[in-house]
Amino acid sequence: xxxxxxxxxxxxxxxxxxxxxxxxxxxxxxxxxxxxxxxxxxxxxxxxxxxxxxxxxxxxxxxxxxxxxxxxxxxxxxxxxxxxxxxxxxxxxxxxxxxxxxxxxxxxxxxxxxxxxxxxxxxxxxxxxxxxxxxxxxxxxxxxxxxxxxxxxxxxxxxxxxxxxxxxxxxxxxxxxxxxxxxxxxxxxxxxxxxxxxxxxxxxxxxxxxxxxxxxxxxxxxxxxxxxxxxxxxxxxxxxxxxxxxxxxxxxxxxxxxxxxxxxxxxxxxxxxxxxxxxxxxxxxxxxxxxxxxxxxxxxxxxxxxxxxxxxxxxxxxxxxxxxxxxxxxxxxxxxxxxxxxxxxxxxxxxxxxxxxxxxxxxxxxxxxxxxxxxxxxxxxxxxxxxxxxxxxxxxxxxxxxxxxxxxxxxxxxxxxxxxxxxxxxxxxxxxxxxxxxxxxxxxxxxxxxxxxxxxxxxxxxxxxxxxxxxxxxxxx
Length: 477
Ligand SMILES: [Fe+2]
Ligand SMILES: [Fe+2]
Fold this sequence. Notes:
Elements: H1 21-41, E1 47-55, E2 64-69, H2 108-128, H3 139-166, H4 168-180, H5 202-223, H6 229-267, H7 280-296, H8 304-312, E3 333-340, E4 343-350, H9 355-380, E5 405-406, E6 412-413, H10 415-421, H11 429-438, E7 469-471
Residues 122, 152, 155, 216, 238, 242 line the site of one fe (ii) ion.
C-alpha cells in the first residue's frame, strides 16, 4: 500500500502534520525562513519554470509526478517511507528489540548530532552549486541541476522535521542554525570540509554528484538502519531521490569523456582543449580531487564513536541486514592499512572501532564501478588511455593517511617530492581556468555545449530536445 501525499496542505507530508497543531505551527514558522534562504542562496539563474519531479507517494511504483513548475513554488514536503509495524533493531546491544518510535533519552544527544550533520550537507550543496545555472551546457543539464537542488532542499526539510518533532527546543534551535551556516562562510561555515569547497564549474559539479552525493548515499544507508524508526524511514525515502543525483554524476562525466574521446580519436592528440573538449589529464585531476575530499567525509578509520553508535543501535552498517555475522561485532577484527616507517603496512584492529573504514570500503568499491563505465567509453573509441581512482591515501586530510604524502599509485613521497609532483595530480589554477573558458551557456533546446556529448535519452521519456527549462526574460543573454 502506498500513502498518497496531500498537496492541499501548506507543507505537503505523509506524517500526519494536520493532526499535530503544535508541530505544524512550528514548521509553518520555519517555512518562510527556508524560502528566504532559497531565494538568497538557491539557484542564481532566473527561471520561469522547470520540468521537475515531485514526490507524490512513497510506495514502490508511481511515486513521482513530472511537470513544469516555477521553482520557488516547488512543493517541498516531509515524506517518510512506509512504516513496517514489525520492524526490529537489527544490530548492537538492542538487537531484536522493537524499533524506537520516540528518541530514547540515553541516545538523544547522539541522534540529534547525526541528524544535524546530515542535514547540514543538504543546503550546503545547493549553496555550492548556486551559480552553475549561468553556464549550463544545455537545458537538459540545467533541469537536472535544479532537480538535484530542489531535492537537497527537501532533504533539509526531512531533517528539520525530525529536529522539530523529536528534539524539542534544542531541535528547533538546530533547525535555525541549518539556515544560518553557509558554505564557505568565514564565520559560520558548513560543518564538513568538502561542503565548503566551491563548485566552480560543471566538470566539478558532475564529479561532486558522482563522488560526494555518493558519500551521502552511504551515510544515509547507515542511518536507514537506525533503531530510531522515523530517522530510518526518512533516509530510506531520501535514498530514492539520491539515485537520480548519482545518475547525473555518472552520466555527466561519461558524456564529457565521450566528447573528449571523440576529439582525441579525430585529431590524434590528447590536447583537445583547442578543439573545445576537456583534456583527459584535467578530468583525471578533478577526479583525484573530488574522490580524496569525499573519502575525508567518512572520518577517521578508527573511531570509538562509530563503534559506540553501532552498539547503541543508532547507526548501522551499509546493508546491515544482508551481512552474514552476529550484528554485534564484539571481538571481531579486520585489517587496516597504516603508514609505518615510510611503508604501507596492514594491521589488525577491532572491527567495532573501524566501522567508518567498513563503510568507506563499500563506497570505494561503488566508486570504481563508474570509472569502469567511463573507461569503456575510451576503449570503445579505440584509445589506450584510462581513468583511475587514486589510492585511498592520496591527498588525505583526515585519518591514518593525514600528514603523509601519497602519490595516486600509493607510493609514499617526502614533502619536497610532493611539492613538485602534486600539480600533476590535482587541478591547477590553469586547469580551472581552461575548464572555465569552455563553460559558455547553451540554452537552446536540444543543443549542447561543445565539451559534452548529448545524453542517450531525455527525462521521463521526454525527448532530449524538450524545453526542460523556461528562462525568465532577464535570464537570457
Ligand atoms: Fe540529499
Ligand atoms: Fe544528493
